[in-house]
Amino acid sequence: MDNFPAIRACIFDMDGLLINSEDMLTQSTNSLLEKYGRPALTAPIRAQLMGVPGSTNGDVFHNWARLPISREQFARESSEEMRRRFRNCEPLPGAEKLLSDLNRARNAVGDRIALALASGTTSAGYEVKTSRPETKRLLSYFPPDKRVLGDDSRLSPGRGKPAPDIYLAALQSLNSVTVGAGEKPIMPEECLVFEDSVVGVEAGRRAGMRVIWVPHPDLAAEYRPVLKDVLAGRTGMVKIGDECQLGEVDDGWAECIPSLEHFDHEKYGIFVLS
After folding, report:
1. pLDDT-derived band of residue 2, with 50, 70 and 90 as boundaries?
2. Which of 189, 195, 212, 225 could link 200 by a cystine bridge, Cβ 3.0 to 4.6 Å?
3. Before 162, cis peptide (omega within 30)?
């Protein structure tokens, strides 16, 4: 870690990382699959859907599910089912403590750690998922102007993860304050991204940022044979070009941890003030 500049910002995904919305999505989908006499999601299919906005509307899911209803009907029913379940989202283990710690932390040169959210969920989805007091409190660590959501006007259509745009927009939101205060702009290599999805890791790497991958256990098991490719952003799940933005295997820019509870602050030169 000595070869990297001090961390000045931490940027977080939300779904499946800070709150259990990915599990809610799986439950919603399985409920409808059962309703129409189809088998539950398999681990390989679930791995391909995690972190991809609108994944249950796409070819990967529908070619596998072979539902006896139209995609449009499934989308309507799925939206209703998810909206009902998403109201019960809860923080995942270690999420609140980590954000609380980072909120009062400093790096090795004494700078505060700036925090931002970069989530592919829409504004309407965000409001539903933060309905409970505990999720609302958790996400309050990110001021509204430091939250970049999937329908943010700064994002071009079709440029969701694994494109780097959402992370670069989050960095821009942090620098609007930093530069205004007369400080040097935060550079991408001074940012640490926290992600649970494979496409999210790639987005962070393409943005030129360091990445902590915190996958769901099912996802971790599915991608264990190609872990090094995931951390380099080189799985090729979604082709978007710009290969020069990708990382290199074993370049030290990313690591995998089993949960947010396992994040080692001091390894990254971050020190929590008592």
Report:
1. low
2. 195
3. yes
CB-CB contact of 199 with 164 (8 Å): no
Angstrom distance (rounded) from CA 63 to CA 61: 6
Count of domains forming the chain: 2
3-state SS of 228-266 is HHHHHCCCCCCCCCCHHHCCCCCCCCEEECCCHHHCCCH
Are residues 164 and 65 both part of a single domain? no
In a domain, 63, yes or no: yes
Looking up tokens 């596998």 gives 64
Domain assignment of residue 121, yes or no: yes
Query: For residue 115, what is the domain's CATH number?
Result: 3.40.50.1000
Number of residues assigned to the chain: 274
Domain boundary among 65, 86, 107: 86
HEC readout, 142-156: CCHHHEECCCCCCCC
Encoding tokens for residue 26? 């799986």
Domain that holds residue 27: 22-86
Q: Does one domain contain both 110 and 61?
A: no
Is residue 229 part of the annotated active site? The answer reads no
Strand ranges, E, within 6-52: 9-12
The set of residues, in sequence order, having a beta carbon less than 8 Å from that of 125 and lying 6+ positions away, is 86, 150
Q: Of the residues 2, 13, 23, 250, which is catalytic? A: 13
Q: What is the pLDDT of residues 64-89, one digit of tens each?
A: 999 999 999 999 999 899 889 999 99
| The domain boundary residue, chosen from 86, 111, 129 | 86
Q: Are 231 and 254 contacting, i.e. CB atoms less than 8 angstroms apart? A: yes
Q: Is 251 annotated as catalytic?
A: no
The answer to whether the pTM exceeds 0.85 is yes
User: Of 15, 165, 196, 218, which is the active-site residue?
Assistant: 15
